[in-house]
Amino acid sequence: MSLPPIYDHHRVVPAKTFDDLKVGDRYPLPSRTLGDGNFAAFQAVSLDNHPIHYDVEYCRALGHPGPLAHGLQVLCFTAAGAGLFPHEIGDALLGMIEVKAKVLKSAYPGDTLYPALEITELKRQRTTGVVAMRAWVVNQKGETILDGEHVYLLKL
Predict the structure, then answer these.
(1) CATH number at residue 108
(2) How far apart, in whole angstroms, are the C-alpha atoms of residue 29 and residue 113?
(3) How many angstroms separate the Cα of 57 from the Cα of each of 1, 48, 109?
(4) Cβ distance 15 to 90 under 8 Å?
(5) How far apart are CA 112 and CA 132, in angstroms?
(6) Separation between Cα atoms, residue 133 and residue 120, nearest integer Å
(7) What is the DSSP letter of 63?
(8) Is residue 74 a contact partner of residue 64, using CB atoms and an 8 Å limit?
């Protein structure tokens, strides 16, 4: 199903096809400073009630300055929909087909996270194309705290 023609008049960026994409294309995503709301919202969605994610005194007793952001929470900040990539490819996006990530450092309340995506591989198939993207998050100290990969399927 295609979007109505009027959609083209409201594009945020010019449309691209699979063949317009290039290895090395970068997509910075909005920065976020972690606050109590982020932790509470993720706890509600994930149902993860381990005290390492919400009990300040428990965390301090373990030597942490505060609660640790859940690794999946940090990964969520790399969602392509927060940036321009899905706006460029429009209705060619069939879906995400793979995601993986390594959590390299902890993130705490007050940390500011800077996520980004970069195309690392393009595989043309008969009727579809596969786009692999490096996904990473850097904190306010310039430390990479998450490094991973997203893989998307696009129609040609």
Answers:
(1) 3.10.129.10
(2) 10
(3) 52, 18, 14
(4) yes
(5) 26
(6) 5
(7) T
(8) no
- Is 5 inside a domain boundary? no
Q: Each residue of 63-82: pLDDT tens digit?
A: 999 999 999 999 999 999 99
Q: What is the pLDDT of residue 52?
A: 95
Residue 128 lies in a domain: yes
Residue 65 backbone phi and psi in degrees, to 5: -75, -15
Residues whose CB falls within 8 Å of the CB of residue 92, separated by 6 or more in sequence, listed in order: 17, 18, 154, 155, 156
Q: How is 75-124 classified by DSSP, letter by letter?
A: HHTT-GGGSSHHHHHGGGEEEEEEEEEEE-S---TT-EEEEEEEEEEEEE
**29 inside domain:** yes
Task: Please count the structural domains in the chain.
Answer: 1
| Token pair listed for 81 | 């929909």
Tell me, what's the pLDDT at 4?
59
Phi, psi of 114 (to 5 degrees): -120, 95
Cα 9 to Cα 58: distance, rounded to the nearest angstrom: 53
Residue 2: pLDDT band (50, 70, 90) is low
Q: Kindly state whether residue 7 falls inside one of the protein's structural domains.
A: no
